[in-house]
């Protein structure tokens, strides 16, 4: 027996009558059934984003209209559908969403109809903040960090110092918003939140991959930076270490087993960065000989043309995710 409500069926029938295929597909993707949007509806909407005769503003506005519902199920599925299209649809949808002054205004959303509505409303508020931040990141950087080219010749590994120091905090903000979703395994109780979590999981792996490669690039450039750049880079690296812990906790919910066993960087790396900055600022070092060894060792490792796996020195930075 179908789980669609009478309201869902009436709405779909109305869109069939008016001839709005996109509105009908959005309606069917965001029914009151407590399950993720059906693949056939998502696939159709992805196809629409690639059709030049389809109005992207109309598609986006139709999704946004569904978030005005009082039902946590409909709103959650509208967010999931939007996220799915951000990930797999044509880039022009992301461009349009990023161009809007406002996207989702769900900070006060609350479905009081049932206990489950109270619980799921919390995650709707968090999820909408992440999607807003994902769109904002695109606006600021003109790139989707989860889709950019990776590897030794990828975007983050070849970025210059000035742009790198501006870009890494943008990635940090997006990752923060994602990790704030903060579910535990006991709260993944239905097909709707499970679908959202899996999309977030995929984004977290790809987003962290870009973040990770940017940090590697930054460390390789660190000892050639100006004093002010070193200050910013050091703070970025400290923030990165904190995000490692949070990401590890997030991924445990999905029972991820591909994380490296040791996520704690050797203290000598952070100390070397701090000691180098101290020397630029003319501050006295407690142990000049030890500090000098840290800095020189780090410089040699980062600049060595034969060093292809820096994880031997800072295992926190090179993670063997499958993404």
TrEMBL record:
Record keywords: Acetylation, Cell membrane, Coated pit, Cytoplasmic vesicle, Endocytosis, Golgi apparatus, Isopeptide bond, Membrane, Nucleus, Phosphoprotein, Ubl conjugation
Any GO BP: clathrin-dependent endocytosis
Domain spans labelled ENTH: 14-145
MF terms (GO), sorted A to Z: 1-phosphatidylinositol binding; clathrin heavy chain binding; phosphatidylinositol-4,5-bisphosphate binding; SNARE binding
Localization per Swiss-Prot or TrEMBL: Cell membrane; Cytoplasmic vesicle, Clathrin-coated vesicle; Golgi apparatus; Membrane, Clathrin-coated pit
InterPro entries documented for this protein: ANTH_dom (IPR011417), ANTH_dom_sf (IPR014712), AP180-like (IPR045192), ENTH (IPR013809), ENTH_VHS (IPR008942)
Bilayer-crossing regions: none
One Gene Ontology cellular component: Golgi apparatus
Keyword Membrane: yes
Quaternary state and interactors: Binds to clathrin; involves primarily the C-terminal sequences, but the full-length protein is required for full binding capacity. Binds phosphatidylinositol 4,5- bisphosphate. Interacts with PIMREG; this interaction may change the subcellular location into the nucleus. Interacts with AP2A1 (via its alpha-appendage domain). Interacts (via N-terminus) with VAMP2; VAMP3; VAMP7 and VAMP8 (Via N-terminus). Interacts with LC3/MAP1LC3A.
Function: Cytoplasmic adapter protein that plays a critical role in clathrin-mediated endocytosis which is important in processes such as internalization of cell receptors, synaptic transmission or removal of apoptotic cells. Recruits AP-2 and attaches clathrin triskelions to the cytoplasmic side of plasma membrane leading to clathrin-coated vesicles (CCVs) assembly. Furthermore, regulates clathrin-coated vesicle size and maturation by directly sensing and driving membrane curvature.
PANTHER family found in the cross-reference section: CLATHRIN ASSEMBLY PROTEIN (PTHR22951), ENTH DOMAIN-CONTAINING PROTEIN (PTHR22951:SF11)
Similarity comment text for this entry: Belongs to the PICALM/SNAP91 family.
Protein name: Phosphatidylinositol-binding clathrin assembly protein
Organism of origin: Monopterus albus (Swamp eel)
């Amino acid at each position: 027996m179908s789980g669609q409500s009478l309201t869902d069926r009436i709405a779909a029938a109305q869109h069939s009558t008016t001839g709005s295929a996109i509105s009908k597909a959005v309606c069917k993707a965001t029914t009151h059934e407590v399950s993720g949007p059906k693949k056939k509806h998502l696939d159709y909407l992805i196809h629409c984003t690639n059709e030049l005769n389809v109005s992207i503003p109309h598609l986006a506005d139709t999704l946004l209209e569904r978030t005005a519902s009082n039902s946590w199920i409909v709103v959650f599925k509208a967010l999931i559908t939007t996220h799915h299209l951000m990930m797999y649809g044509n880039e022009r949808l992301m461009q349009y969403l990023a161009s809007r002054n406002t996207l989702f205004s769900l900070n006060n959303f609350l479905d009081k109809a049932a206990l489950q509505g109270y619980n799921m409303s919390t995650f709707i508020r968090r999820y909408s903040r992440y999607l807003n931040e994902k769109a904002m990141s695109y606006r600021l950087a003109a790139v989707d960090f989860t889709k950019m080219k990776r590897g030794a010749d990828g975007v983050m590994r070849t970025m210059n110092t000035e742009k790198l120091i501006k870009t890494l905090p943008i990635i940090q903000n997006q990752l923060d918003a994602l990790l704030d979703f903060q579910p535990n395994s006991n709260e993944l109780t239905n097909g709707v939140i499970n679908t959202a979590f899996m999309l977030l999981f995929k984004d977290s792996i790809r987003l962290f991959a870009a973040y990770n490669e940017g940090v590697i690039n930054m460390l390789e450039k660190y000892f050639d930076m100006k004093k002010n750049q070193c200050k910013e880079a050091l703070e970025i690296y400290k923030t990165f270490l904190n995000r490692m812990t949070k990401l590890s906790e997030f991924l445990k919910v999905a029972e991820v087993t591909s994380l490296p066993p040791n996520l704690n960087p050797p203290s000598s790396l952070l100390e070397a960065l701090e000691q180098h900055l101290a020397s630029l600022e003319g501050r006295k070092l407690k142990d000049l000989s030890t500090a000098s060894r840290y800095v020189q060792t780090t410089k040699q490792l980062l600049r060595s043309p034969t060093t292809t796996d820096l994880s031997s020195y800072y295992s926190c930075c090179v993670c063997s995710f499958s993404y």
